Prior knowledge:
alpha+beta, Beta-Lactamase, six-stranded antiparallel beta sheet, 32 strands
Amino acid sequence: xxxxxxxNRDLVTxxxxxxxxxxxxxxxxxxxxxxxxxxxxxxxxxTANISDFVALVFDQILGQKFDAVFGVKAQKELxxxxxxxxxxxxxxxxITLINExxxxxxxxxxxxxxxxxxxxxxxKEQLANIYAQTIQFVSDMNNTRTLKDLCALVAEGTREITGxxxxxxxxxxxxxxxxxxxxxxxxxxxxxxxxxxxxxxIPVQARELYMKNQLRLIVDIGYKPVPVFTIDDQENKNLDLxxxxxxxxxxxxxxxxxxxxxxxxxxxxxxxxxxxxGLIACHHYSPKNISPEIRLAAKLQGQFITSQIxxxxxxxxxxxxxxxxxxxERLTALNLPLSHESxxxxxxxxxxxxxxxxxxxxxxxxxxxxxxxxTPSDEKIKRIISGIxxxxxxxxxxxxxxxxxxxxxxxYEDVSGIIYHSLGNGxxxxxxxxxxxxxxxxxxxxxxxxxxxxxxxxxxNSFHLWKQIIKNQSSIWLDPEINAAASYAHALHNQxxxxxxxxxxxxxRSLSEVLKETNSELENIxxxxxxxxxxxxxxxxxITSKVLSDTNEIPSVAVIDSLQRVTKSANRxxxxxxxxxxxxxxxxxxxxxxxVSLNYILEETLQEMKEIIIENKAVFECESLPDVxxxxxxxxxxxxxxxxxxxxxxxIDRLPVIKITxxxxxxxxxxxxxxxxxxxxxxxxxxGFEQEYxxxxxxxxxxxxxLEKYDGSGVGLALCKKIMQTCNGNIRAVGKLNKGTDITxxxxxxxxxxxx
Length: 756
């Protein structure tokens, strides 16, 4: 059986340092030993230092069954500990292995159970003191109001429980640069409180491990890593130690701590809203180990912080939130006029700036700009709006460093921070904060966080105070300010919509007045055309008739022909005026819709048309028609127009046959996106028409044939359509050239109709 170690010896370079595989170092710290056991209890991994703790050698036990090496009793204790759901794996298992007492922590890594054993400590004797300290801490915690006060208390409490020389609460910003937010230290140590550290001090993969494993211990910075050995039975065999207590640390991190002069560390993750909010970083300036019980007590300190972050930040922001809420209430209570003057009034109102503690505000509505307070020029505001839209922040956008998004603005003194809201249709509101020049104290130059020399890659070795002046950015916008701005921007958007609606309403009111006046004029014209023009037409007809009938003086043939044409034109004009009068009268009809027997309407219509039907030798085939809701006299006009049309456009090659069919019972029929229940179809065998003209034939004065060939006013079918619209129905035509025409009329449902 061949055995190999799994130590990761990959060289870390500038190009791969952010991807250093720190979760698979293949080695551990020497204050305990590690076993990797398969699910069937075969020892597959073992550290080289097991012989320092028990009378065993790693290469002799690899591949062996656990019970064969440590006994059946020990295996049963481990099995019960792993599988007993009532016992949390928070507390280590106290177990005897080869006559030695250990505290064993267990976790699963893929298909391997990792057992990490440390000699049993005297930590239990300290439990009473730890409990008393924790109770006192909880009591003191209730007396703190701000998050900073709480963190200071946690730093003090953690140092008292653990005994480390320095305890720091390390808080990350949005880019994971760190700040020492609170600190408790030995009096002889220089303070780190307020110092900043670049994000490169804790790279991405380290932050990911802090999220997985919330407690990390280094007992002795000068330790010699202990390799993990395994059976060489597969290529690239490894062991993920992300959750390991004993996991060996990155050589770069060890060198970083040595450069700081640290001898031992304890790090506790502070996780808030599934993000690494910060760390409790404990430093000791000589080697130091603490018992599992003390580790858990220290971890509990971190829970106190993360459980209180939202509450304490709320306390910190309460006064600001109260002021912004008051300003929002006053602004929304303003009774502004529905005019552009309202934006001028609004901009001059002091509450608009208090709303989010801004120094200036601008409202851009259409081509007008309204401003108040410290604001940039109109031209600069337009460039800001264009720049933000280029980044597709078209609805809302907030920053305290505008220069990162809109470069080349000729200075950011008055516009470093903005809250931008789109108000629709190109309108915007922007609040401004001026530049706040800040001085940040770094623990060493952040630009020199990584050093490369002839020996390779190293962390920085200088932590001397390094000050940086920050320009082109404002103080940050707080959540209450951002929320208040968003709320009022929404209200302002509604105000603009109301203004636009008011303007549209006024515009339509004016148009309505113009339309009303125009309609009145048209009605006057219609009155003239249908009444005043009747008199001269009658005189023309009378004179021509008298001339033609005067026997004393017989006119020439040419004169007779001219007079006959004049009479014919006058008759045609009179018919046209009568049809126009009928068409316009439909609009003003006051008769209501009622139940009508279409059989009765058809019978009366055929009776009135008896002479023309006989003259044309027309044949009618009629089914029984339904009762519908309509206006009786209009139905009679409709039937008359359709039947006259069929006779007028009869084919000269055959006798006219007109079939009238209908729905027997109410049935749903969809046409023109409306639902109808009754239909009647008039089918003839006349000259028909091409279907492309099916819509145009219902337009007033629309004709498919010349007057010389077929007389008529071009109003008949338009009149039919208007009648059906007046009765809430519809009409359509289907034509086949030289074969005939089908005209179908549709009637709306009677509320009492049964449709099954």
